[in-house]
Amino acid sequence: MAPRKKQAPEPNTTIPVSMADLARELGVSMTTISRALSDHYSIGPAMKQKVLKLAKKYNYQPNRLASALRKGKSQLLGIVVPYIEGRFFPSVVHGIESAASKAGYNVIICQSNEDVAQERRNLDILLSAQVAGVLVSLSRTTRDFRHFEKLRSRGMPLVFFDRIVEGDNVNAVVLDDQEGGYVSTRHLIEQGCRRIAHIAGPQHLNIYKNRRQGYLDALREAGLPEDESLIVYTDMIQSQAIDAMRDLLASPIPPDGVFAAGDYGALGALQEVHRQGLRVPQDVAIAGFSNETFTVVTEPSITTIDQRCEEMGQAAVRLLLELIEADGRPFAPRQVALRPELLVRNSSVRNSSVRNSLVRHPEGERLVEAAAKASKLA
Amino acid sequence: MAPRKKQAPEPNTTIPVSMADLARELGVSMTTISRALSDHYSIGPAMKQKVLKLAKKYNYQPNRLASALRKGKSQLLGIVVPYIEGRFFPSVVHGIESAASKAGYNVIICQSNEDVAQERRNLDILLSAQVAGVLVSLSRTTRDFRHFEKLRSRGMPLVFFDRIVEGDNVNAVVLDDQEGGYVSTRHLIEQGCRRIAHIAGPQHLNIYKNRRQGYLDALREAGLPEDESLIVYTDMIQSQAIDAMRDLLASPIPPDGVFAAGDYGALGALQEVHRQGLRVPQDVAIAGFSNETFTVVTEPSITTIDQRCEEMGQAAVRLLLELIEADGRPFAPRQVALRPELLVRNSSVRNSSVRNSLVRHPEGERLVEAAAKASKLA
DNA sequence: TTGTATGCGTTATCAG
DNA sequence: CTGATAACGCATACAA
């Protein structure tokens, strides 16, 4: 029996209306109703109008569950991210939701909390929910990828973003970190730096490895020596960057520029340079990576790389929709690498004419205002 | 006809298995399968084991769509937020998702982009998706609340958070902003400030109105005069706060403390005080609001109010689940106000002994590390 | 152009 | 304790 409440309903309670109800009211078949509502070709315009009008009158809401059950595909996309915090993932999710909703899809969001087991469970849940496709950014503890095999065997469209399974048989969207390291370093070189240090992150993580490689590429291109003593490996946290910078400044020939593979590294470097009474960017120019919110509020503001978070989300959705539309037909997997954007700010600009024009760093202000807007109600 | 592909399936493609399949294989009825899987009381333990084993063998995944369709309720919660960016909303969503998934629910997330029309559309979509309940933070352009009436008439459980519909006939979770303004100001008073300015936000927004009221409460309690010339109204952005601070410092008796109703206000104040060669906190102590990420990286770090974002999400889910479980039975609406947490940092601590112990501001470091962790892969 | 009939996968009811 | 059956709301193959 239907679980419809037979008991006396609450005072102002409306019971939802179904296609069958509309059909009965109009004295036509459900088929007709269905066709009118889904804008099927074989439907008389007069009939269609009548149906639409009645639907509006009764405030008809299609039941997407029923539709999805029947069609075997819902209008839902699943997202699995390690967590929804910090600057990066929320922005990507923002991009995903926007792109998805524009295409008529909604998103179910799951957090793996950096835990493979939970990642696995999330995938199962999304399968159960009959989502049309899945977007995944890997948990840090994921070393074994069999659970994704399961999705594949079920024919579930799958796109990775940011933290991806390496290889050319997966669909994925990433930032071109190597390019990011390259343009940052080249920028420092263009500003006259000749001895550029690198505050590196953990090299088992691809992003940091690639940023370092980009740094080396730029040095090589400029004919500058690759000096391992100028590279300090850290966990990319502020305190370690401070130590790193202290060591670098204590060396016989201290650096005149620093490319940090993360903004917290750049921040630590900036603080230590200041502490030693040196000037940024005149004595040491600094560039970071990730466009953290704080990079525009430091004194001076920090040059950094924007990771195109929203674009990443959009690109991932685009790819996923293609995959969904392919509907099981052969589809050549694609890996998309987004071009990072160098945001030049005061921590790196030595040319004074350029510098003056940058003092107001408009893109920075935009960022600050956007962030202020984004922070609660402000 | 079922849309099951009749064409030759892809090489390693598995077709999903249903209860009917299991029933056939075991030679029992679907009813039995259903009961075994849903742990119904009237099922033999032997039978149950057999079924569970077979389910595992075939990797059975229940179809939640079918279940929800039949039961008239899904295991989905809907969230409508203005956007997923900045510090606040992502954290709340994080809290919501965690609490929901712990209770066996998943969340569909929708952005209104500060647009009532989209907010309305989102609610319709969520109704269509047959969610079990809805969590809403109002768009800024929402002045008319009839669309929520529709949810109510459908008996859809609804909880507001942060940006709520005022009144005691709604379920809502908010931060106690007045308390926040109060404890911040009292803290400044305890640090010896006797002339405390207030950088206020737009007063048509409740949060800012309430923070201002809390500020006044603290002054009154301490017997300090309420001086309107010490209150500057801004849109809570950095540039306006700089101007505000300049004016305040130019007055005949400049303030020795500033409570800003937002961290961007505190930041601007800090910068202007420094620019004028004054010291923070010795000459002017400063406190902000919202615990933005940058408040721990400024020099000095900024005392602020934590908004309990995650707790807010959790509380909202708790309330919503109660509502869902009440299942239409009379439920007295409840408004929950979370206690804000004062985070004392260097911008406000004048007592040197306390100050030294705070130089490392452990909660700040935790924050920084968490943020670093949260920023991409770091 | 419209109608009839059936099934998607699950669960509730009722009878054994 | 188990089974047969109907129904949730919708979409489609097929007949008219």
Automatic annotation (TrEMBL), chains A, B:
GO terms for molecular function: DNA-binding transcription factor activity; transcription cis-regulatory region binding. Residues 17-71 form the HTH lacI-type domain. Gene3D superfamilies: 3.40.50.2300, lambda repressor-like DNA-binding domains (1.10.260.40). InterPro entries: HTH_LacI (IPR000843), LacI/GalR-like_sensor (IPR046335), Lambda_DNA-bd_dom_sf (IPR010982), Peripla_BP_I (IPR028082). It holds the Pfam family Peripla_BP_3. Keywords: DNA-binding, Transcription, Transcription regulation. This is LacI family transcriptional regulator. It comes from Hymenobacter wooponensis. The lineage of its organism: Bacteria, Pseudomonadati, Bacteroidota, Cytophagia, Cytophagales.
